[in-house]
Write a structure and sequence with these properties.
The structure is a single chain. Helices cover about 30% and strands about 25% of the residues. By secondary structure, it is of the alpha+beta class. The chain is globular and about 70 Å long.
Amino acid sequence: MLSDSEHKMSVVVLFGGMSSEHEVSRVSAGTFVDQLDHQRYELLTIGITKEGRWLYTEADSAQMADGSWEELPGNMPCVLSPDRADHGMILFTPDGRVEKMHLDVVIPVLHGLWGEDGTVQGLLEMMDVPYVGCGVFASAACMDKHYTKIVLNAAGIPTAPGIMVDARHATGESVYDEVKKAKLAYPLFVKPSRAGSSFGVTKVEQADDEQAQIAALEAAVAEAGKHDWKVLVEQGIDAREIECAVLCAAPGDEPEASWPGEIVLDHRDQGDDQFYDFDSKYMDSSASHVEVPANLPVSVLEDVRDVARRAFAAVDGAGLSRVDTFVTPDGTVMVNEINTMPGFTPISMYPKAWDASGIGYTELITRLIEGVLR
């Protein structure tokens, strides 16, 4: 047993989850496991399977990444107790005992629904256990791109023009009519409102005739509808996609913004229609490279940082977020979306942006933990 002077804070990394971004979460969590200051903190890991089982596990980052963690013999079913008297985790051991473990901090490295959308954050609020990242409102509002637009526009922060449609009832014709009414210019991007990592996103070009256009829109909405009934149809913006990492470790601190970065696609053999999809983001490190700072005038980079900080504040952000922006040829900056638990894979922008701004992985994680403990 550790003496009081040697006691380490217990830090739980939650990973996996039931969303379509389950695999991304596993890789992101592995970065936290590898980069955590193990001299300072005691690491505990809880994996959530795609079926929704919660398992305490001693898996390493490689086992998390490849999914083999689920088969480890030492795994034990567990729950996070909402009873504040417990202040932690309840383990169900193989010999039928029930054990309680006190938790000091939780890092919910969960992407997408049932993790990044305020659900887990609400549980942790009920538990009164400090956690890294945005709170219930910011998590929910930023998970839903439709409501992100509403909040940001109310704060005077521009976003791409678009409409929201209900995939359960929409037809190609009804969407076509709504697009005309909103005067949206092609190409359009059709995407689930509450999904991430580019799942279900379709680029719809201008078609030669009306029926072809209707068919293209219907197919795009159906694809997005596989992930969420709430679907955004957005006007494509002639702009560069510039991403900025925001850090606000402790409540009440002023948010800090990294130097903005840009994902530069290296594979151009598919023509101009290629966009930054799931494989480019997470599975194929040769598909792109990160440039931080982005190759833009310093004045524009500072504008991006300013917009990122203001957007973070507008949604009541906390801890960390990645603010994705569009920068048009005339230097206008508008927000595309806000990721409240950005990817932490080896090729992810958030940690790379901070590393290029002078804050390494381990220091970044430590600042986030220490911030919520304050």
